[in-house]
Structure formats: C-alpha cells, structure tokens
Queue: 2 jobs
Job 1
Amino acid sequence: MKSLSHRSAVEPFHAMDVLAEATKRREAGYPVISMAVGQPSHPAPKAALEAAQAALVHGRLGYTDALGTSSLRIAIAGHYRTRYGVEIDPQRVAVTTGSSAGFNLAFLALFDPGDCVAIARPGYPAYRNILAALGIDVIEVEADAQTGFTLTPESLSVAERKAGRRIDGVLLASPANPTGTVTGKAALRALADYCHDRDIAFISDEIYHGLTFAGEETTALCVTDEAVIINSFSKYYCMTGWRIGWMVLPECQVRAYERIAQSLYISPPELSQIAAQAALGAEAELDVYKASYAANRDLLLKRLPEMGLTIASPMDGAFYAYADVSRYTNDSMAFARRMLAEINVAATPGFDFDPVEGHRTMRFSYAGSEADIREALDRIARWLPRTD
C-alpha cells in the first residue's frame, strides 16, 4: 500500500478531538458539559427553519451557481449596506460551504506552494494546518499585550526580518479566536495600507461579527476594497451544521475563485442557502441569543480569576475565554484530558492555538446555556486543588 502524502501529516485540530472524546463519554452516559468548541446552544433562527421546511416540501433542490444563488448574494450585499454603510456589488459575493471552504479558496487562489502567510499567535489552528497541507509556509507572529493582541505593521516587519523572507499574505481575525480581540478601524486601516504598499494579500476573517461586546467592530471593507473578506452563518446566526458561509472578493479576482469553486465544490448546498437568506433578517431574535452569551461572558470574567485561572487576553468578542492555567499545570493537554475524565467538563488546550506558549493556557467556550456554564464552573471550582 502506498504511504500517505507529506501534506497529510498536519497537526490534529485538538478542539475537535476533545469534542469527539466528549461525545463518546456523553453517549456512554456520563454527564458531560462541553466548553470545547464554538457551537451556539441556540437553534437556527425561526425564519431560517421555516424557509428550509418550505423548501423541503416542494423538494426541488439542486445545484446552484458555483458562487451561490443571486438572491442570497444580493441579500448579503444588502447586509453590508445596512450594517456597515458599505456599498458592494453582489457579484463580488461568493457563497461558500462554510467559512472553511472560503479559506481553502482564498489560499488556493492567492498563494503558490512555498509562499509565506503571516497569522497571529495565538490563533485559529485550522489556518496553520490548511496552509501546511497546501505547501504554504506560515509565520506565526506573537500577538500579546504589547501589540494589543493583534497584528500590527511593526510586528509584521519584525517577523519578516527574523524569518529573513518576504511575507506574501496576512490573515487577521477580528473578533479573534481564541483571544476575543477586536481590531478597530484605525488598526485595520494600518494593516490594509501596509499590505497595499507591499503587494501583500490581506485576508480578513470576520466570522464572529455580530458577537462583539467591547471595542469597535469594523469590516475591512470600510478601509479597503483589496481585502478578501471571509464570513459565516455559523456563529452569530447559530447555523454551524448548515455549513454555509460567504466571501467578499476584489472585483478583479472573482472569476479566479469561481473557477476553483466549480471544480472543488460544484456549489454550496441550496437548502442551506435558502435558510441563510431568511436568517439575514432575524437580528432581533439573534440579539436575544447574543445577550445570553454576554451573561455567560460576565460569569466567566468573574469566576475564572476567582479560581486562579487568569484571563490571558481581552474577551471583547466571539465567545471564548482564553485563560492562563499555569498556576495548576504546565501541560494544558494533560489538564484537558484530566478535566474531562474526572469531572466531565470539556475545554480546549491552548496548544491548539499557540504551539509555543499554549502549554500554559486553555480556551473555554461560553456559547452554551447559562445553566451548563454555571454547572461547569462549579465542577471546576470543586476540582481544582486549593493553592491558598
């Protein structure tokens, strides 16, 4: 049997491994509470469910255009007009099979094997893993208190000098996973200008937009037409399992993305597109859900430090607390396994997000119900050894 390719030897996505183990324990009858993944506890909006049900009744579902139905693309363009005051041509919108497909398309369209992309550390591990699988080099740029927990032109310049090579792309998430950092308009503009002046591709991951609790939520479209925007219906819209997302592309690049999408994905699922279009009008319902995350956020901001788990970065957006657990462990992987095995609480080891310092940190998702979050925190408080 032929051996596997070198590109298959990427790091596992440990959050998904933790989720899989938590699922096994739950199926075996253990009272597991998962704070491991960013999966909202709420269902998709009522309007989305009703639209999908109606589509299933008539049953005429099939292929759409590779970049999505024209009606959804128009609706997404309208979303930018209403929410941000930005006018975009609907032809610049590409609907994708989740934001994950958007990242695949962006990396394939913008970079060749051997090119180099800068990402923040700590940051979402799938960036690193997908880029590695495609033969694209990654520079992980430390994002800490000195940089405002985000990428800056100065930190990128230092990273280039240290690496001794040119950066071909910059990928920034705001709000960020796992840190919750919200990068404001001025900082986004500085990054966009830096990339423009150096002919660097700029990708803005905005999948947690709508889930900002502090700071200035701004789409990169407010400061540049050259960025590739990636967004999703998974988080704010509570549609993780529908696997539907979108991109906003520079006009001159649309056809290149379409050609790749035609062969890789044929088209996004029509049923999910129908539901997504209905979800765009459900902000009143979704903001009630957001308020529940805000309550959970307040709970973690209070309880985690009381237990000696220091908040390691701002919790300005998304729905994660990134906590320093070094008071109790120097091995966050082992800590996560023990916590699941001994008290049936699942959370994600920081090593997923930061291969250098992640042995000291854990990410706790607060996307679940308030009752579950309270119970999980109570279990952790009873479980942690007394250090006073």
Job 2
Amino acid sequence: MEHSSPLIDGVGLADRTRKSRWPARLDLTQSATGLVLVLFMWGHMFFVSSILVSKDAMWTITKLFEGYFFFGASYTWIVSMVVALVIALIVTHALLAVRKFPINYYQFKTFRGHMRMIDHEDTTLWFWQVFTGFALFFLASVHLYIMLTRSDRIGPFESADRVWSEHLWPLYILLLLAVELHGGIGLYRLAVKWGWFTGNDANATRHRLKMLKWAITVFFLVLGFATLAAYIKIGIEHQGHYGERYVPSRLQALPQAVAPTDGIDTRKSV
C-alpha cells in the first residue's frame, strides 16, 4: 500500500502551493499598477498639453476635472482625490518593484559586471528602468504633493507661475525625462513578459516592440518639452502679475467677471 507524504496529503501541500503563488501574484499586481500608471501618464500629458491649443482650452480641461460643467461650481477636492489615488498606486507599484532592486553596493557591482559581460539591450533597459524609477521617488513626490495640497492652483496662469516664478521648471525637465523613459521601458517589458503581440519570431517581435517603444517615448518627450516651453513662455510674460488667476476670454467680457472658485457658482450670467 502506498502512503501519502504529509507534504502531499492534507495541509502540507496546500500551504506550500499557496506560498509559491505569492511571487506570481505580486508580479501581476506590479504589472497591473504599472500599466494603469503609464496610461494615466499619457492621458495626463494630453490634458496638460491643451495649453498648446489655447489658454481657454487648458482652462476648460481644468474646470472639467473640477466638476464645473457638471455641478455648476469648481470643487478642487475632486482633483485632490484623484492625486491621492495616483499616489497610492505609485507607492504600491514602488514597494513591489523595489523587491528586485540591488539592495547594496556588492549586488549593484555584481549586476553591473554581468551587464557589461552579457551586453544585452534588454538588460541595459532594465538598468535604466531601475535608475529612472529610483529618481522618480524624489522627483514625482514633489509634484504630487503640490497637486495634492494646492489643487486650486491649476490653470494657464497658475500652472505657468508654478513652472517659472516658483522656479520648478528644472524639476519638471528631469521629471519629464524620468517618467517617459521609465514608462516606455516598463510598457515594453510588460509586453515581453506577458507575451503581448507575440508572433512566430520572438526576436522580430521584440525588435518591433522596441521600435514602437522608442517612437512613443520620442513622441511624448517632444510633446512634453513643447508643453513645458509654452508654460515657461506664459510664466515669463505673466511674472509681473504673479498670483493672478486666469479668466477665460468669454468671461472677461462680463461685468465683474471672475474665474470659478471652489464651491462657488459663477455661471449665472454665462
């Protein structure tokens, strides 16, 4: 008669199997949060770049997210709640990703040695993903804290003042480079890891994905720098009126027109 091992029968196997699934679950969570953050980043870039269309277009996008066109008043706490959710996603993603970072100089030196010896492009991309991710710990936290606590200071003049008069443009240059490189590499690695768009030739698929990854990165970098340049230009022109809020052209013609403020309906005469 065959006898079952305690590891095979009863609780033993269940415990061992359950524990072995956790790395996969953590990897799936890391991938999911990373994907959501990349998609959010792209959407955010398109919304912010509305300043390239006009100041009124950027003001309209801002007020849309504040609920102005739904509730008849601007509620900036809605933006703060979205920012808080993004912070939670970033913290979750970072805590899961840091598991794979070199934790001391010896591990880092060993990895660098292997990277030079192997000379593989995907390994180099992973290094830059780690480097930009580490940079984002510091760069993104400044921007997110400002957006969380000063969500009422978003607009054509308000954002331009922050970029230029409050001297945050160097931060945004570094943040733009780090976030676009990190997000683009991360999305490429997700596609390879989970087998998205897999064809008959794995090497050809990787080559196409890399070309697409660099095309997307270049596109968003060009869009981002053009947008930042527009805010700098507006900030320079507006620095003599620092702190003044933007009033859209259609409201400027109204008597005693003011821009919508938090919880106040200013559309009665519009």
